[in-house]
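In this section we walk through a basic example: taking a raw amino acid sequence and producing a predicted 3D structure, encoded as discrete structure tokens. The instruction is simple. Fold the sequence below.
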Amino acid sequence: MVDTVSPVVGAADGCGVRGDLLLAGLRLRIAASSPPLLDSVVGVLAPACEVELSAAGEPDWTLTVDQEVLPVEAEAPFEGRLVLTLPYGGRQLAVLDAAEGVFRLAARYRPGAALVVLEVDAAHRSTRLVVSPGDGVGVRWADWLARVFFASRLLASGWRMLHASAVALDGAALVFLAGQHGGKSTLAHRAVRERGALFMADDLVLVGPGGMVVGWPTRVAVPAELLAGQPPAVGRVERTVVAGVPRQRALFSPPQHRQALGVPYSAPVPLGAVVVARPDAAGARGVGAGPLAAGEVEEAVAEAARVPQQLLYVSDALGLMGGPGLAEQAAGARGLAGLLAGVPAAVLSVPVEHLATADVWPVLAPVVPLVGHR
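The resulting token sequence is shown next.
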């Protein structure tokens, strides 16, 4: 179990520091010109990935993060060139050239952000990210590239990405499935606070063919009602209206979530149980739980697997990290039947307005004994 990974100091050489991220037999080397740059990547990807700071094995790919003054003019790279715009924040990548076997791109992490440059050398299995000194936004491309490296390869080899939350209890993953705004984040964070669980993810998980569960690192959304009315010192507050009901959440990066709230995280663990949350409308009968048949689990999994934007976001459509393309990922995706089978599965019904406070664990425990772990 890893509950914090910052600060990180990797192996050093004349060019800076380096460390390896490992997941499912894949090894990505991160080389950086300073420890904070290395930490900016490792702090997001661990503990979903194991960290080996000695960087002794042979990497499948190397990502180098450098800081240099960039001569690129503000808008020129996006004029008259092929531009890929990604979902979630409007990140843009513009192809500059491919001279001497090096594929060069300019990129902007969000509208108005400074430009960065990417240089991809497929022959040497390496990608170089160049950011301007002091550009704390542009360096975030590094952890996105690392996620692309792992996710594109795992998805092509039969892993599946699900819109779900997950925690680890007694060395096993408890996976929560629900519809949009159905309570996945609330249940995951309540399990950490009330059952002593280790946090894995509140939005996306990857499930391997052998039943291994990886909490995929994305931003973490904590419902305001679980923060005891205290505004967070870091992160930002998001206010929305869902089905006519005001909703407020505090958004954190994974390192902020660990450090600011003291939330312990878990490395990948085997699947232990599945809970499908079906929040009832106001005035429903109250909290209830019951076993789910295999067909009902498969139906819930099929719904959770409909994440086309998320799959595009972690695809390697431009070959930036030497990963399989979209067609290869689609070809590698296996059927969903049996993906979460073979473990206790329950349906949890609770009025949506009581999801943050209802006494759900005693109701679930007879069907899913794992939630009785403290």
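Looking at the output, two observations stand out. The domain at 160-223+255-307+334-372 is CATH 3.40.50 (Rossmann fold). The chain has two domains: 11-156, 160-223+255-307+334-372. In the next section we compare this with other chains.
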